Amino acid sequence: EKLLESNDALTVIDSCIIPALNTVGEGFEKNTVFLPQLLMSAESAKSAFEVIKAQLARSGEKREKKFKVILATVKGDIHDIGKNIVKVLLENYDFDVIDLGKDVPPEVIRDTAVRDHVPLVGLSALMTTTVPAMEDTIKLLRRDAPGCKIVVGGAVLTQEYADMVGADKYARDAMETVRYAESLTSK
Predict the structure, then answer these.
(1) Is the pTM above the cut of 0.70?
(2) Rounded Cα gap, residues 145 and 13, in angstroms
(3) How far apart are CA 165 and CA 139, in angstroms?
(4) d(Cα 90, Cα 30) in Å, to the nearest integer?
(5) Order of strands, edge to edge, in the sheet holding 68-73?
(6) 3-state secondary structure of 109
(7) Do residues 76 and 104 touch, judged by C-beta distance below 8 A?
(8) How far apart are CA 129 and CA 134, in angstroms?
(9) Handedness of CA 130, 106, 172, 28 (dihedral sign)
(10) Neighbours of 85 (CB within 10 A)
(11) pLDDT tens digit string along 61-85?
(12) Residue 93, Cβ neighbours under 10 Å: how many?
């Protein structure tokens, strides 16, 4: 609120919040910032964005969304903490996130991607038993939404698993997903 007294909303986002998120993300990658701090910073940024959204609504100013991203924890898996972190970070970087939740059937993900012409789908799995559901989802997406890129992550996933299930990108953490999405905005 103090920054908004002397700066416009977009300046606060671009010169303060995004650089702060980048710093935390880099610290997380280097193991100098840990998951609790990553979560706290994501929540802090989310709170700041709520203040900024209110300011933008009052001024009529709009911040352009980059593109839609679907996030889902695959069928059979009910763990969504990682997906939720990715969601907050992507939203803070101006992506329009469609969060399908957890235990999501492959057909629901495919249908949403096709209906909304979504260029990026993020799939999460925490249990090895649900990796086949991830593979089934990717097969449906490849067949029915061939232009859609797929990023996968989760505690049990590795680059080898990602290659095996046919993903375009393996993200070992939330910031890597954001960087991948950012790389697609320039294409």
Answers:
(1) yes
(2) 33
(3) 8
(4) 20
(5) 96-99, 68-73, 120-124, 149-153, 169-170
(6) helix
(7) no
(8) 10
(9) negative
(10) 21
(11) 666 788 999 999 999 998 887 788 7
(12) 20
